[in-house]
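Structure (tokenized):
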């Protein structure tokens, strides 16, 4: 009985569902989907359930979008082998910044997909664009930009191992403006010291 209580407490303290979903998402991608080029878009699917919704039980809670984006990023890393290459060089990946533009809600019990695409990189980070798209109408419900900081290794060197990434693409206009806004914010915080 005491073991059951300890397991229940651990389940409550740690978000066990999150870790199980991470493992399942990466394993399912590796087992049932082929490897992707680092420049290809990857896709995962989801369903807005009662665990995902706001207090009125009508649509996906804004915080849940960010959680789902994590799973889509892990899936991208797994299918492109990018994270493995970073780890082989002694590096890691951390979320440096994100911006989500909500266009329309995802109603409860509606299936959706999240596409993840590498849109640009520099020596220290990769930049992903992710889209939530409802399956019933193909409408892009939300768009996220994500800065994934790669630690302890040079991103450009890692990406040179991918033939399709031999030439860095032009920086998208929305990404450029977003990075400028981040820099303005950083300058303001530096002045406050």
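Design, position by position:
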């Amino acid at each position: 009985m005491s073991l059951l209580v300890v397991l229940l407490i651990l389940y409550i303290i740690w978000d066990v569902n999150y870790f199980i979903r991470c493992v399942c998402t990466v394993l399912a991608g590796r087992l049932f989907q082929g490897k992707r080029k680092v420049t290809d878009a990857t896709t995962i699917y989801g369903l807005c359930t009662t665990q995902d919704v706001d207090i009125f039980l009508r649509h996906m809670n804004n915080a849940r979008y960010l959680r789902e984006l994590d799973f889509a990023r892990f899936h991208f890393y797994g299918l492109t082998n990018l994270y493995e290459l970073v780890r082989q060089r002694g590096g890691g990946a951390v979320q440096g910044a994100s911006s989500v533009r909500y266009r329309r809600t995802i109603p409860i019990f509606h299936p959706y997909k999240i596409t993840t695409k590498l849109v640009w990189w520099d020596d220290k980070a990769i930049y992903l664009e992710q889209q939530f798209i409802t399956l019933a109408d193909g409408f892009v419900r939300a768009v996220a930009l994500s800065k994934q900081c790669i630690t302890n290794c040079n991103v450009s060197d890692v990406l040179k191992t991918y033939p399709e990434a031999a030439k860095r693409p032009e920086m998208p206009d929305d990404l450029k403006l977003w990075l400028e806004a981040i820099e303005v914010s950083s300058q303001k915080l530096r002045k406050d010291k």
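Reviewer-requested clarification: The mean pLDDT is 93. The helical segments are 2-13, 16-32, 62-80, 82-88, 155-159, 173-191.
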